[in-house]
Design brief:
- The protein is an alpha/beta fold and 230 residues long.
- The chain contains eight helices and seven strands.
- The chain has a seven-stranded mixed sheet, with helices on both faces.
- Helix 3 packs across helix 6 (158-166), helix 5 runs parallel beside helix 7 and helix 5 runs parallel beside helix 8 (207-226).
- The longest helix is centred in the last third of the chain and has 20 residues, at 207-226.
- The protein is globular.
Length: 230
């Protein structure tokens, strides 16, 4: 399979070089999607010869990831894998995702909790509560049992790449896109992955946005659940 790692990055100058070098050490093709960073992310990528797709303005995580899907589609990749630029995703878990694609899955979610495993990195108590709530909401509207619906560590096969290149949720897209994939007849699977603490910088989701996140995503999942497939 021809595989591309898509690395969305917003103000990740503290992490992006180490993330890129980890990917290169494993020999994967990759592209950093610079989402209108205001720090030195773009300049560092250029200086270090890191392949970068520079967005002219900040589109948010959904827009950055969709740009990566479009890039993968344009360049004929069979699989693309979202691999965040903050250092949380473990490069050694990529084969777990690819294995499920090889077995016929269209979208594979990397989970910290599946099959009794627990990643060394654990979210805050409130985020774990939110994850369980979203898991139940997804189950209600799609029938899918997904233990880690907010995980951005995921692999898309050709059908998922084509779907998400046409349309992809903008804000906090991970849970909603799972329902979208299911409603469009794609096979969604989950596999264990390892994750780590953010290596540096600041997360884009703060305490004040957590309630907004939960309400907005719950409504988005419900709408996606009732929508017709595209």
């Amino acid at each position: 399979m021809k595989v591309l790692l898509v690395v969305p990055a917003y103000n990740e100058e503290d992490n992006i070089l180490n993330v890129s070098r980890a990917i290169e050490a494993k020999g994967y093709d990759y592209v950093v999607v610079n989402d209108g960073s205001r720090d030195g992310t773009l300049e560092l990528c250029k200086q270090q010869g890191i392949p970068v797709l520079d967005l002219p303005q900040n589109l948010g995580i959904g827009g950055a990831v969709q740009a990566g899907h479009k890039y993968a589609l344009l360049h004929g990749y069979d699989v693309d894998i979202q691999f965040d630029g903050d250092g949380q995703h473990d490069i050694d878990s990529v084969p777990n995702l690819l294995s499920e694609i090889e077995c016929g899955a269209d979208l594979v979610i990397g989970s910290r909790f599946v099959d009794g495993f627990e990643s060394e990195f654990q979210s805050t108590f409130m985020r774990r509560v939110g994850i369980k709530w979203l898991s139940k909401t997804i189950k209600l509207f799609s029938g899918l049992s997904i233990t880690d619906p907010t995980s951005g560590f995921r692999a898309c096969g050709k059908r998922a790449i084509e779907l998400f290149s046409r349309e992809y949720p903008i804000d906090y897209p991970e849970p909603e896109s799972i329902v979208d994939a299911s409603k469009n007849g794609l096979e969604v699977k989950e596999t264990h992955v390892e994750m780590h603490e953010r290596a540096g910088g600041v997360s884009s989701i703060g305490k004040l946005s957590s309630i907004y996140y939960m309400v907005k995503v719950t409504i988005a999942i419900a709408i996606a659940g009732f929508s017709r497939s595209r």
